[in-house]
Amino acid sequence: MPAEPSGASYAAAGVDIEAGDRAVQLMKEWVKKAQRPESVGALGGFAGLFDASALKRYERPVLASATDGVGTKVAVAQRMDQHDTIGHDLVAMVVDDLVVCGAEPLFMTDYICVGKVVPERVAQIVKGIAEGCVLAGCALVGGETAEHPGLLGPDEYDVAGAGTGVVEADAVLGADRIRTGDAVIAMASSGLHSNGYSLVRHVLFERAGWALERHVPEFGRTLGEELLEPTKIYSLDCLALARTGDVHAFAHITGGGLAGNLARVVPEELHARVDRGTWSPGAVFDLVGKAGDVARPELESTLNMGVGMVAVVPPDSVAGVLATLEDRGVGAWVAGEISERAGGDEAVTLTGDYAS
């Protein structure tokens, strides 16, 4: 009998094609749940397909595109060996950027890079992505799983995603619509969301030495469970507001904090004043601040401090906007207002102390 080949192979280099194929089979049931009527074809093609004839109902459709990841929150998921929520975070980070300009998220694609393909783990990640897409009202039309042995450890991975949305040209939201007297309405976050985890991990793990399994009375659950709380997806809530015509702009509060992200939609001649006394940040923000002796400016420029999305609305629309958000189960309140910018003013000023 001929001797077995002893040369190099892809498998010997650490890439398992059969495991990748099995991962695709396991994720199919979840991808099927994250479809829209415009979705075309099945999982496994070289490109995701979406029926663009749906755009014919627009007078002048403008496509919006966004891409993002979830940062080092993946390190927490890996340490906890819980992988079915990180995809939800990924969708939130992408679609809530799209909706800021008033765009309806249409579809997403994902990229999962792993040190070693463990089919069940990959399927759990995709499950979270699919479930997030359902909550966002968009389709998951494709993605890529790449195995990078030698660059990532066997249990390490990273995720990224890209999304496309559409908005009518004359309905694009942004700074040009904001006027003096507009109200700044804050929408409550579900926790840390997916930003600032490098600081959080440094403070809680390295400095304080806390374990993920530690029960924290202020949370009513373990530290790990709190840190993996999925990012709130606001897209359908924001679209409900945008379709009423009662919104001038949105700001997605991610890295850079409330002031940094709200400033991105405040015109140069105007100023947003936000009163900290209108809300109390969740316990996790206080914990990070105290455990790491983190100064308030550092916290506020890194974490969302309890506000995940902001809407800037005309004053006569405040009651209706708040009522709509309440009906949709979104905690919201008037946090500030827009005024003329005086010389030397920043775009956004946070005033007062947080409510206790």
UniProtKB/TrEMBL annotation:
<keyword id="KW-0963">Cytoplasm</keyword>
<dbReference type="InterPro" id="IPR036921">
    <property type="entry name" value="PurM-like_N_sf"/>
</dbReference>
<keyword id="KW-0436">Ligase</keyword>
<protein>
    <recommendedName>
        <fullName>Phosphoribosylformylglycinamidine cyclo-ligase</fullName>
        <ecNumber>6.3.3.1</ecNumber>
    </recommendedName>
</protein>
<dbReference type="InterPro" id="IPR004733">
    <property type="entry name" value="PurM_cligase"/>
</dbReference>
<dbReference type="Pfam" id="PF02769">
    <property type="entry name" value="AIRS_C"/>
</dbReference>
<comment type="similarity">
    <text>Belongs to the AIR synthase family.</text>
</comment>
<feature type="domain" description="PurM-like C-terminal">
    <location>
        <begin position="180"/>
        <end position="343"/>
    </location>
</feature>
<keyword id="KW-0658">Purine biosynthesis</keyword>
<dbReference type="InterPro" id="IPR010918">
    <property type="entry name" value="PurM-like_C_dom"/>
</dbReference>
<comment type="pathway">
    <text>Purine metabolism; IMP biosynthesis via de novo pathway; 5-amino-1-(5-phospho-D-ribosyl)imidazole from N(2)-formyl-N(1)-(5-phospho-D-ribosyl)glycinamide: step 2/2.</text>
</comment>
<dbReference type="GO" id="GO:0004641">
    <property type="term" value="F:phosphoribosylformylglycinamidine cyclo-ligase activity"/>
</dbReference>
<feature type="domain" description="PurM-like N-terminal">
    <location>
        <begin position="54"/>
        <end position="167"/>
    </location>
</feature>
<dbReference type="InterPro" id="IPR036676">
    <property type="entry name" value="PurM-like_C_sf"/>
</dbReference>
<keyword id="KW-0067">ATP-binding</keyword>
<dbReference type="Pfam" id="PF00586">
    <property type="entry name" value="AIRS"/>
</dbReference>
<keyword id="KW-0547">Nucleotide-binding</keyword>
<dbReference type="InterPro" id="IPR016188">
    <property type="entry name" value="PurM-like_N"/>
</dbReference>
